[in-house]
């Protein structure tokens, strides 16, 4: 009964997220969206908090549905993963991010989110290589972000994929670090280059929950593994001070800049260089 009324939903209701009929609707609409022109990338700066310098940008996917407006990635990525559409969407993201990266200075990276499902595809690395060929983007400018969850997958397979990605020249960041169940011992032999401290840990800094101890531990882990550490979701000056005290200098979050469309600084969600 609900499914028949889907087309009539005038406004967005959070409870739609959980309903099976909403997921079905998203699935059907996604198929059209991938082939049409409804996706866009926005870019959020990654900053060296000591120098104020922007060292990179994370590319974040946006879907503007012609009738429903903006649908957040948290709602459609899981559906795309479930119904086998993520690789196609991921290819679009890779292509667009590579094209955009060409406008940035050589030292500035673009970070691309990659679903563990994409990573599992044997084609993935070949496709990435082909993308570099087609766009002329230097692999050194692309960082692949993969959530910590991937570390619970088949370790040897993950390591092989990481190696192949690295041998292209890309760097690899472990996203949302500190929330999952990764086997810390197994981290050491994976060739990634950065840990991204999850924003839930940053949010706990300075509160009674003593988030500082956890953050320091992860900073020290990064140091021991000889990889970079970047704090996500930094929203205020207090967090900046506490993160610096813990030894973390790379930061990303609303305090430094919201995700913006390529080319128009400050003009959220419309297209033009974040320079
Ligand atoms: P993520 O990779 O952890 O991305 C960071 C999310 O935090 C983004 O949400 C960003 O807009 C938001 N954010 C940034 N700074 C702050 C802050 O200071 N405070 C708060 N509260 N939030 C902040 P967004 O863009 O809605 O993306 C949500 C998730 O969707 C991403 O989490 C990522 O897992 C996924 N995603 C986004 N784009 C892609 C994509 O192209 N491919 C794939 N596979 N996943 C994507
Ligand atoms: Ca990310
Ligand atoms: Ca993250
Ligand atoms: Ca996340």
Compact description:
This protein has 275 residues and is an alpha/beta fold.
Secondary-structure blueprint:
Elements: H1 20-35, E1 39-48, E2 53-65, E3 69-71, H2 73-82, H3 86-101, E4 109-113, H4 116-120, H5 123-135, E5 142-147, H6 155-168, E6 171-177, H7 184-187, E7 194-197, H8 199-203, H9 211-225, E8 228-231, H10 237-246, E9 250-251, E10 260-261
Parallel strand pairs: 2-4, 4-5, 5-6, 6-7, 7-8, 8-9
Antiparallel strand pairs: 1-2, 1-9, 1-10, 2-3
Helix pairs in contact: 3-5
Bound molecules: ligand C2E and calcium ion (CA) (3 copies).
Ligand C2E binds at residues 44, 60-61, 72-74, 77, 93, 113-115, 175-176, 199, 233-235, 253-254, 259.
Protein name: Bifunctional diguanylate cyclase/phosphodiesterase
Organism: Oricola thermophila
Keywords: Membrane, Transmembrane, Transmembrane helix
Strand content: 15-25%
> Which structural class fits the helix and strand makeup?
alpha/beta
Globally, the shape reads globular
DSSP helix count? 10
Instruction: Classify the oligomer.
Output: single chain
Report the biggest beta sheet as strand number plus sense, adding barrel if it closes.
8 strands, mixed, barrel
Averaged pLDDT: 88
Helix content: 25-40%
Q: Terminal Cα separation, in Å?
A: 49 Å
Kindly state the number of beta strands.
10
Strand order of the largest sheet: 1-2-4-5-6-7-8-9
- Spell out which ligands are present: ligand C2E, calcium ion
Radius of gyration over all CA atoms, rounded: 19 Å
The residue ranges in which pLDDT falls below 50 over 5 or more consecutive positions are: 1-12, 266-273
What's the SSE pattern?
HEEEHHEHHEHEHEHHEHEE
């Amino acid at each position: 009964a609900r499914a028949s009324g889907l087309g009539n939903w005038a406004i967005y209701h959070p409870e739609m997220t959980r309903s099976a009929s909403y997921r079905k609707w998203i699935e059907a609409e996604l198929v059209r969206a991938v082939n049409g022109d409804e996706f866009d990338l926005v870019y959020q700066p990654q900053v060296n908090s000591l120098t104020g310098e922007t060292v990179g940008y994370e590319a974040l996917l946006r879907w503007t549905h012609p009738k429903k407006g903006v649908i957040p990635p948290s709602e459609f990525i899981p559906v795309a993963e479930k119904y086998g559409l993520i690789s196609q969407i991921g290819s679009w993201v890779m292509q667009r991010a590579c094209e955009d990266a060409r406008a940035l200075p050589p030292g500035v990276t673009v970070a691309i989110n990659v679903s563990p499902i994409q990573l599992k595809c044997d084609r993935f690395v070949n496709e990435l290589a082909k993308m570099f060929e087609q766009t002329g983007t230097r692999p050194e400018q692309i960082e692949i972000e993969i959530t910590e969850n991937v570390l619970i997958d088949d370790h040897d397979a993950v390591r092989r994929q990481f190696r192949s990605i690295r041998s292209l020249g890309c760097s690899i960041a472990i996203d949302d670090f500190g929330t999952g169940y990764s086997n810390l011992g197994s981290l050491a032999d994976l060739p990634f280059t950065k840990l991204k401290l999850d924003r839930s840990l940053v949010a706990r800094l300075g509160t009674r929950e003593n988030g500082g101890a956890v953050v320091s531990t992860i900073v020290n882990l990064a140091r021991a593994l000889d990889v970079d550490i970047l704090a996500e979701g930094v929203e205020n000056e207090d967090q900046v001070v506490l993160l610096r005290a813990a030894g973390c200098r790379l930061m990303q979050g609303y305090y430094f800049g919201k995700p913006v469309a390529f080319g128009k600084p400050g003009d959220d969600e419309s297209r033009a260089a974040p320079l």
